[in-house]
Amino acid sequence: MISTMECAADAQSLISISLMKIHNSRTQRGGIKLHKNLLVSYVLRNARQVYIKEKYAEIYRMQQYEEVMTVCNEIQELNPLDLDAEDAEDEEQARSACCSAEESLCGAACHRGAAQPVAHARTASALFGCSPLEDGSKEPDPCYYRSCCMEPSPVSHCDQFTANSNMHCNKTTVLDLDTHVVTTVENGYLHQDCCCDALQCGQGAQSPARKRKVEFGCCVSDVEDVSDFTAARKRAKREDCCYSNLDYTDTSNISNLISIFGSGFSGLLSRQSDLEQICSKQVLASLGAWTRAIVAF
Amino acid sequence: MAGAGGGNSDVQWCFSQVKGAIDDDVAEADIISTVEFNHSGELLATGDKGGRVVIFQQEPESKNQPQCRGEYNVYSTFQSHEPEFDYLKSLEIEEKINKIRWLPQKNAAQFLLSTNDKTIKLWKISERDKRPEGYNLKEEDGRYRDLNTVTTLRVPVFRPMDLMVEASPRRVFANAHTYHINSISVNSDCETYLSADDLRINLWNLEINDRSFNIVDIKPTNMEELTEVITAAEFHPNQCNTFVYSSSKGTIRLCDMRASALCDQHAKQFEEPEDPNNRSFFSEIISSISDVKFSHSGRYMMTRDYLSVKIWDLNMESRPVETYQVHEYLRSKLCSLYENDCIFDKFECCWNGNDSVVMTGSYNNFFRMFDRGYRQDVTLEASRENSKPRSVLKPRKVSTGGKRKKDEISVDSLDFNKKILHTAWHPLDNIIAVATTNNLYIFQEKLN
Fold it and tell me: Are A209 and A200 in contact (CB under 8 A)?
């Protein structure tokens, strides 16, 4: 497992440095050096994996926080006289959960999820995404909270989220704490891709945020992807071989140039249609030249 | 005499000579890119980025100074490769000499192979110390005589002249490599040689330059699936059917040409499992092998990756028998080294004559020797400050802890622009050639 000092911020700078190296290699005397660019692509892939993990953990965390706030607001709107004792307890615990620190939020929910009665508890625990079986989960600290949140099947969580979002919230706003980009999720459609900013920062491109229709199914697959990462991370914690099994057929739908460096040169020559839909024109222009150079070999 | 050298306390190294410009302003063309002794050690060849080859010859030992072995003086200089342009791909082909390999001497002339990224050339270096005189139809300066003035005929004779060393290209082996050539190696049969690029290895006959056999091809059907490239290749010193090639993934494959025409199936694969505790963003880069060299005996081979030198027993594939850390203190600096591209530096390594000591370069013009028998290592520096004749080189030390002792240099003070990538060890004596950026240092064992 990559040492904890190499966090998402370093991954982001490594991504931009690597992309710059690849870009500069096109104009170097003697032609593109295959060996060096292969090694740079490995760094890019490693950094991307770390970056995506961190990003999704954060998005997930923010979305959960938003939902908790929504639930809290809804609970506050209810007539207190209609609640029975158990629900009052839920309300108190929900409030305390809302008020507690972000990292401990999941922990509280997880621990609470084990002992909940039916209706509200099911909704709450579903929204928290923590399985009732997960009462063995550890108290999350910044290093491990991600696994705490994401160990249960995220697919089911997302399905429930979709259902719940249709019922309870048509619009969710997520603030990316790293890039301070505001993302709005409306009926399952994302209007801003936080991950694109990393590329834009790296490339220096300043394309405006474009309305992008991404099926929520995409996000589900992304989260599934993330669950693969977390599952791999689980193995890493037990076996310390997080990166021993390289997935060269990674087909993540992350819509930026980073995604095409999935493994080695995989993706450099493919997924052109995806990129045309999603990436900015500047990125596409540079990518095109790069793929032409590769194909020239 | 090929005694034990390097790390043990009996051997001291002293400065002998330095070749190259003194000024700090280094011309790109003068950067040394390869260094190689010939089989007797009498000749030392260097190649540079400008496509030139300079050959030094050792003077015979002087009776006046028995303590010193002969000095190396310039013997021949010639332009081996010129810059070229590939019009089809719109790519410039650098003239930089990537490798020089000497052929075993068969007659009075010397032969060497030199290669750039695309083309290998066989050069004949011969001496001329006589010239014919007394032509009937030509004057001495070459002008043709008026036939009316020719009244008698005479037989031209050879007369002594000042020694002239001529280098002439005898063969040009071109158009066989799509990717950049990184290695050439002459077979022990003295008839064939191999050339390796990033994805393929070709087998040539020294006499035939218009065709070669492809013996290794690791190019995937779909280039998207490319995961590793060939970084170095070498023939076995005794077994003409055996060669090895190293990869960017840190594996070495040994192939037997008797098994099949195409040696994609390796006979042996040498690989050490990665230590998961050392996993980082740059694990793939630092595990890439930059050089592989057989021992003179042929029993062992040595590989160099970014941080270490490993000795492998050909009979054991699972792990190296010895591992030497060259500059482990750089492990925590990999991010900076990635940013300034130093992490891509390809260090070479070499054996001494009796395989007891190995040597490789580092930064700050340091180079390291590891004595396998005495399990000692030493760090020495090639610098103009230590270049008084016969001055003994003082061992250097890099301080890794917080407290820096006197005469130690801290990691942050290392000059990463001063790197020693190419070193060579005389095949018989304790004489070493160490190339800094544009200077060639020659050190000898101190003889009492």
Answer: no
Query: Taking a contact as any Cβ pair under 8 Å apart, which residues of chain B between 175 and 194 contact chain A?
Result: 178-180, 182
Nearest residue to B378 (alpha-carbon basis) of B363, B359, B405: B359
Contacts of A42 in chain B (CB under 8 A): 284-285
Which chain A residue has the Cα nearest residue B283? A43
Mean pLDDT score, A2-30: 78
Q: How far, in Å, CA of A96 to CA of A88, rounded? A: 12
Model pLDDT for residues B180-222, shown as the tens digit of each residue: 999 999 999 999 999 999 999 999 999 999 999 999 999 999 9
d(CA B37, CA B45): 6
For range B22-29, the mean pLDDT: 83
Q: Which of B248, B283, B339 sits opposite A38 (nearest CB)?
A: B248
CB B272 within 8 A of CB B226: no
pLDDT (0 to 100) of residue A186: 54
Q: How confident is the model at residue A173 (pLDDT cuts 50, 70, 90)?
A: low
Q: How far is A181 from chain B (nearest CA, A)?
A: 27
- What predicted TM-score, i.e. pTM, was given to this entire model? 0.70
Q: Chain A residues contacting B, CB < 8 Å?
A: 1-3, 6, 10-11, 14, 17, 21, 29-31, 33-36, 38-39, 42-43, 46-47, 50, 240-244, 248, 263-270, 294, 296-297
- For residue B129, give both structure tokens: 């110390």
Alpha carbon of A19: minimum distance to chain B alpha carbons (Å): 12
Q: Which helix (H) or strand (E) holds B121?
A: strand B120-133
Instruction: Compute the half-sphere exposure of residue A109: CA atoms within 13 Å on the CB side of its CA.
Output: 33
* Residue B403 contacts A, CB cutoff 8 Å: no
Dihedral pair phi/psi, residue B402, rounded to 5°? -70, -35
* Mean pLDDT, rounded, of chain B: 93
CB nearest B226 (choices: A33, A38, A242): A38
Side chain identity at B412, as an amino acid letter? D
Place of tokens 């060269």: A248
Distance from CA of B69 to the nearest CA of A (A): 41
CB contacts under 8 A, B 264-323 vs A, are 274, 276-277, 279-285, 288
CA–CA gap between residue B245 and residue B251 (Å, rounded):
8
pLDDT at A79: 58
- In chain A, where does DSSP find H-type helix? 8-25, 34-77, 85-99, 102-113, 119-128, 145-150, 154-167, 194-203, 216-239, 257-260, 272-278, 281-296
Is B386:B439 a contact under the CB 8 Å cutoff?
no
| Cα–Cα dist B31/A215, whole Å | 56
**With an 8 Å Cβ cutoff, is B152 touching chain A?**
no
Helix (H) or strand (E) holding B286, with range, is helix B283-287
